[in-house]
């Protein structure tokens, strides 16, 4: 399989253009006792005319 170099900007443009879903979980514990659990679910996508911003005016703050 041939190696192909891709610029980071091109990779980010392609990922944000189609969207990326991140999911994961982290559990911290001692002696088989769970102390902290963190779950992560995130959708990262670009905002354009077809996919508008969920915030009024496009600014979350």
From TrEMBL:
Main location: other
Keywords: Gas vesicle
Superkingdom of origin: Bacteria
Subcellular location: Gas vesicle
Family to which this protein belongs: Belongs to the gas vesicle GvpA family.
Full protein name: Gas vesicle protein
Source species: Streptomyces tubbatahanensis
